[in-house]
Design brief:
Length: 182
């Protein structure tokens, strides 16, 4: 029974992360989300992320496209139940009209995000459901040059006594002591 509830929770998380829904905004079975002239429905306790205001950020070098920079930041590190959601914001300053992938930005490697719990000396990896990690596709998805893109990852939540974690993302230096929102 526990396996079924874990699979259901993971499936709901995947749907929430990808923004997929069974019904459209008006209750009709369209998979469309809000259009440019419609507001996102209000949800109690939900505060929309502002990619222009990450918690921490850095400008790092990348080898993609012959070299350039990437503005990399942590938009959110939030516990929701037994899971912890990491939202990164990436703004490539390299690439062409087709954009650039996270794989290319990271020297043709996956970003392999990791959270370090320095209180309990534990390393957290992205949650897997079967063979599927709860993270975005990083090879074929193209990020537009000069525009912020959000990337969300799901981890097991740390114990309540953990107030901050180190965030390791790709080949770049980790972000230290990023506050955990609860």
């Amino acid at each position: 029974m526990r396996r079924i509830s874990l699979a259901a929770a993971a499936g709901a998380t995947v749907l929430a992360l990808t923004g997929c829904g069974v019904l459209g905004d008006d209750g009709s079975p369209s998979g469309g989300g809000p259009g440019p002239d419609r507001q996102q429905p209000a949800v109690a306790g939900y505060v929309p992320l502002d990619p222009a205001k990450p918690i921490v950020k850095a400008t790092v070098q990348t080898q993609a496209g012959g070299g350039g920079t990437l503005e990399l930041g942590v938009a959110e590190l939030r516990v929701k139940g037994k899971l912890l959601h990491l939202t990164m914001v990436l703004t490539p300053r390299v690439g062409d009209a087709n954009g650039v992938s996270v794989y290319e930005l990271n020297g043709r490697h996956g970003p392999d995000p990791t959270l370090l719990d320095t209180v309990n000396l534990k390393r957290h990896s992205v949650v897997k459901v079967g063979m599927k990690s709860l993270e975005p596709e990083y090879v074929s998805v193209r990020l537009p040059a000069g525009r912020p893109s959000l990337q969300s990852y799901v981890f097991a939540a740390p114990p309540d006594n953990v107030r901050s974690m180190d965030v390791v993302y790709g080949q770049w230096a980790p972000f230290r002591d990023v506050p955990v929102a609860r």
